[in-house]
Structure formats: structure tokens, C-alpha cells
């Protein structure tokens, strides 16, 4: 531009009311709930809309997300911010765990470990993040995930430990 100012870019983000999904989740198993999100029957997480990623596949103990990195993901040094990879890993890991849970159960991330192994740019192309459960117990679950490009090249990998909240068993111990 002749005035010396950088071109301004904009991005508009829209999402559905997340409380719709929260209500639906109360009557579905984790796997049923996540499959309903993939099918678009209930809203996904607003952060997915904000960051431009989406779940594309879920099965028991496994969740797959995709993202097309863009310059809107950049940090000030000209590469995609590591927070994109960390968020994708956390989402795939948590959803892999969630897919194993019965109606009324939930989880929260206790620990997230992320390893970045190469830089991501807007030229990287479509990235796929696949999370898989390692172990689900009564109160603790663990999972691992990999973030790869279309050729299978690894960009990041990680693990999680989640706390599992199960509904009380009628007549059971507190």
C-alpha cells in the first residue's frame, strides 16, 4: 500500500449456544454425544469455531480432529502459535477419554504434556490430530495423541491424565 500501513485482515466467527450441547450431553453416553457433535446435531465447542478446527471422527477410545492452519493462527515471529497444537491435542485427548464414558459421567484434564517437533505455517496444509485412550479406570484416565500432516509427518504429540467423574451408584458407597 502506498500509505505504508499494513493491510488489515478480518475474521468473523459464529457459533451456536453451547448450553444446547450441555443439555443434550446429560442424556447421552460420551460416544453418543460426540457422534452427535460430529453429525452437527448438537453444537460443538465454541473454541473450535474460534480456532477453526473440527471433530471429524469418533469411536470408542478414539477421537480425530482436523484444522487448516492459517495466518490468523500466527504468533509474532511468523509461525503458527503453539497454542493451536496444544488445543488440538487437548481436544482429541479429552474427547478420546469422553468417548468411553457412560451417561452421566464426565471428566476434566488434570495434566497435559505437549511435545512440539516442528514448526507449523499456513503452508503446512491440513493437519489431523488423533487421540487414543491408553487407560480408563474408575477415577483416572490417560490418553495419547499425534498431530500429523497429510503425508503423516509428525508436528506434535502429547499425553493427558484426566480425572473421571462418575454418577453415584444407587445403594452404593459414597
Automatic annotation (TrEMBL):
GO terms for molecular function: acyl-CoA hydrolase activity. It catalyses: (5Z,8Z,11Z,14Z)-eicosatetraenoyl-CoA + H2O = (5Z,8Z,11Z,14Z)-eicosatetraenoate + CoA + H(+); octanoyl-CoA + H2O = octanoate + CoA + H(+); decanoyl-CoA + H2O = decanoate + CoA + H(+); tetradecanoyl-CoA + H2O = tetradecanoate + CoA + H(+). Its main location: membrane. It comes from the Bacteria. It is found in: Cell projection, Ruffle membrane; Cytoplasm; Membrane. Residues 78-155 form the Thioesterase domain. GO terms for cellular component: cytoplasm; membrane. Its EC number is 3.1.2.2. GO terms for biological process: fatty acid metabolic process. Keywords: Apoptosis, Cell membrane, Cell projection, Cytoplasm, Fatty acid metabolism, Hydrolase, Lipid metabolism, Membrane, Transit peptide. InterPro entries: HotDog_dom_sf (IPR029069), PAAI_dom (IPR003736), THEM4/THEM5_acyl-CoA_thioest (IPR052365), Thioestr_dom (IPR006683). The keyword Hydrolase applies. Pfam families: 4HBT. It is a peripheral membrane protein. Belongs to the THEM4/THEM5 thioesterase family. NCBIfam families: unchar_dom_1. This is Acyl-coenzyme A thioesterase THEM4. It comes from Myxococcus llanfairpwllgwyngyllgogerychwyrndrobwllllantysiliogogogochensis.
